[in-house]
Amino acid sequence: MPGPADLPLAGLRVGVTAARKAAEQSALLERRGAEVVWAPALSVDPYRVDAEALRALTAEVVAEPVDLLLGTTGIGMRTWFRAAEADGTLDGLVAHLDRAEIVARGPKTVGALRQRGLREDWVSPVEEVADMVRHLDGRDLTGRRVVLQEYGQALDGEAATLRERGAEVVVVTIYRVEDVDDAGPLLALVREVAAGRVDAVTFTSPPAVRALMGLAESEGHDAAVARAFGSTVVASCVGPVTAAAFEDWEIPTIHPDRSRLGAMVKQLESTLVERAAGTTR
Fold first, then answer.
1. What does the pLDDT look like over 136-148, one tens digit per residue?
2. Is the Cβ–Cβ distance between 13 and 199 less than 8 Å?
3. How far is residue 252's CA from residue 202's CA, in Å, rounded to a whole number?
4. C-alpha span between 188 and 39 (Å, rounded)
5. Please, what is the Cα angle at 159 between 157 and 160, to 5 degrees?
6. Are the C-beta atoms of 215 and 183 separated by less than 8 Å?
7. Helix, strand, or coil here: 22?
8. Residue 169 in 3-state DSSP?
9. Which residue from 37, 79, 140, 271 has the least number of CB within 10 angstroms?
10. 56-67 b/e with 16+ CB inside 10 Å = b?
């Protein structure tokens, strides 16, 4: 029976920046022999909803017909529907959205919509908000009322693009991602990355990337962190949206074809094993 030293990631250290599902991710890595350094980049309870503001936005949405709904996250849509259910406005909201054309970012969003009896008209194959907007290229949006479900980060650019095409855009902010209360563990991880004392760091959201790199900049470690990620430390992202957050720092990343936690861990395992064997950079 294989011992700990025979596991594929034995002797390797992996930083985990996730707040949600951190235990699940850590277990996947530890079962492969990795030493996990957990340093949450965001609040453990990041999805904080302003109930009064969301109630007002729901009322604005149902005040007039909706031509197009852009649903961007499963958790966002589920949170919106639960809030409407608590307010007694769910049936009216669903009936209103059922008359709209629905564009979804990915399967999680689709699942949240179908749970309430709504059917999507198109789903982004790459699960990107930018792809959803590109899908509408060439469409005359003049006078069309578009509801854009915003998740933890602002979608001001996407909303502006739709407005430039003539659409009336209602941005529905479901929640805001909050910074971690205690940045000590994240700062410690920044220093470990800068010194090359970890083999990889995983990221499951763009705000987590910006939190770590922002802290690195504020502490004067950004150059060393960028060098480390460009050489000895792997920046492993759950998908292309998270990977794109590194573009401002020109940091190379890896991400799986499917934006799933298990796929990310499997890809990271393969990358680190190949690197240890001397077959990668």
1. 999 999 999 999 9
2. yes
3. 13
4. 8
5. 65
6. yes
7. helix
8. strand
9. 140
10. ebbeebbeeebb
The pLDDT value recorded for residue 45 is: 62
Strand, helix or coil at 117?
Answer: coil
pTM, 2 dp? 0.69
- 117 near 91, Cβ under 8 Å? no
Q: For residue 183, give the DSSP letter.
A: -
8 Å CB contact between 202 and 16: yes
Q: If we measure between CA atoms, which residue out of 26, 24, 31 comes closest to residue 16?
A: 26
Contact 14, 200 (CB under 8 A): yes
Q: Hey, which of 48-52, 111-115, 151-155, 277-281 has the most confident mean pLDDT?
A: 111-115
Tokens of 110: 């689709």
What domains lie within the chain, and their CATH numbers? 4-45+180-276 (3.40.50.10090), 51-173 (3.40.50.10090)
Residue type, 166: G
Could you give the CA distance from residue 28 to residue 152 in angstroms, rounded to a whole number? Answer: 26
17-29 tens-digit pLDDT: 998 789 999 999 9
What's the token pair of residue 272? Answer: 């680190």
Query: How many C-beta neighbours within 10 Å does residue 230 have?
Result: 14
Indicate the residue type of 130: A
Cβ 193 vs Cβ 223: under 8 Å: no
Are 148 and 171 a contacting pair, CB within 8 Å? yes
